[in-house]
Amino acid sequence: MGRSDRKKVIDEIARYAGQVIDSDAYRECVGFRHHCRTTIADHMVHVAVVSLSLCSLLSFTNPDRERMVRISMTHDLAMVHRHEYSRYTTAFRHPFDSAAIAEDILPLSRKEETAVKRHMWPLCVLPPTCREGWILTLADKICAFQERFGKNIPWAQYVEDSRKGASDR
Ligand SMILES: [Fe+2]
Ligand SMILES: [Fe+2]
Description:
169 residues, mainly alpha, Hypothetical protein af1432, 2 strands, binds fe (ii) ion
């Protein structure tokens, strides 16, 4: 992804997820390690970036880009509480708790809520019910792999810079 493409997609995320980015729950994610080398905030922005690329690729299916950003930027909000879960229940509990936290920040539609709750599919058995939900489950897995083995990119910082730039303008 080139610099100007990246800026465009980051600005889109900052615009659609403004309420999330300004929330205390998201602020906690900024300083919280995830997938060994990244943070939960970096991971969620990364998932939003990859999801939007997949939306462009699958544009003939007419995905809703705003919905895509809303669910990507909230799907792992509860991972900051993972120390409260046992090793075996984290994968099943954090999607439900993330949806509950997200509800306090921005009202999610029924489909968005379901997409967040089922992003660990196929582990959670019940599949997503909308195309953005399917894209989220795929992007989440691609990002988890890249974050473990690929280059570390300060995604959350990019979004924060974009948000600051927009309010300075
Ligand atoms: Fe997750
Ligand atoms: Fe995730």
